[in-house]
Amino acid sequence: GAVVSQHPSRVICKSGTSVKIECRSLDFQATTMFWYRQFPKKSLMLMATSNEGSKATYEQGVEKDKFLINHASLTLSTLTVTSAHPEDSSFYICSARELGYKNIQYFGAGTRLSVL
Amino acid sequence: AQKITQTQPGMFVQEKEAVTLDCTYDTSDPSYGLFWYKQPSSGEMIFLIYQGSYDQQNATEGRYSLNFQKARKSANLVISASQLGDSAMYFCAMSPNQAGTALIFGKGTTLSVSS
User: Fold this and answer.
1) For the ranges A60-64, B3-7, B56-60, B94-98, which has the lowest average pLDDT?
2) What is the pLDDT of residue A101?
3) What is the CA radius of gyration of chain A?
4) Contact B112/B9 with Cβ under 8 angstroms?
5) Dihedral over Cα of B87, B5, B63, B37: its sign
6) How far apart are CA B93 and CA B103, in angstroms?
7) Which of A28, A77, A103, A106 to mutate to test the interface with B (most CBs of B within 10 A)?
8) Measured distance CA(B75)–CA(B96) in Å, rounded
């Protein structure tokens, strides 16, 4: 299947700092990428849909000024957690959809964010 | 509104046995896809199998098969000959067959395989 790369896999930062997470589709172009957040032993919660060359679409309740999304090219989307606080600690995972008959969504390996 | 329901929080199976993970869905879209993903403790989401709403036959991928019953709106995952490495969280998901639409996930089922 297609490969989606996500970096970093783990980050620990101090409260108040900003953290950038990258999501790359390695062997296909993705006009749309998705960002999810997952709490321990829970399901994935869609945060936003990242569209290449345009503004991201955020789900209700997700602060767009806190979670900045940039989809500057057909293979790269970034999520920046601005002024991170301990409550932002979570597992963040991105996905990209390979267009075709099945429209399968492939996921990155995820980023575990810990804010001290 | 679209919804995925997985009613089994946890399932236990012995090695080499088969196990069925339940999934029901609700949608008003005529064309949609159903997906199963595996999430081991490392956190990565691994795509397992896909079933299209218009597919006449049940999907199969190696030891994975999808028991698709459209009238009942169910898409159960069957894992044959379970292995210890199958222990993980399993998510059922769906989306309309439209570009740019996200997946809707169920709450997941934790599968534990014992020797």
Assistant:
1) B94-98
2) 65
3) 13
4) no
5) negative
6) 6
7) A103
8) 15
CB distance A99–B99 less than 8 Å? Answer: yes
Q: Position A99: which residue type?
A: L
Cis ω before A8 (30° cut-off from 0): yes
Determine contact, residues B101/B32, Cβ cutoff 8 Å. no
Size of the A and B interface in Cβ pairs below 8 Å: 64
Which chain A residues touch B if contact means CB-CB below 8 Å? 1, 31-32, 34, 38, 41-44, 46, 49, 51, 91, 93, 95, 97, 99, 101-110, 112
Contacting residues for A74 by C-beta, under 8 A, at least 6 apart: A25, A29, A30, A31, A52
Whole-number Å distance between alpha carbons of B37 and B24: 15
- pLDDT greater than 90 at residue A68: yes
> Any bridge partners for residue A57, and if so which?
A49
Identify the weakest region by mean pLDDT among A15-24, A67-76, B75-84: A67-76
Contacts of A38 in chain B (CB under 8 A): 43
Token representation of residue A57: 């679409």
Statement: residue B101 has pLDDT above 90: no
Contact A46 B108 (CB under 8 A): no
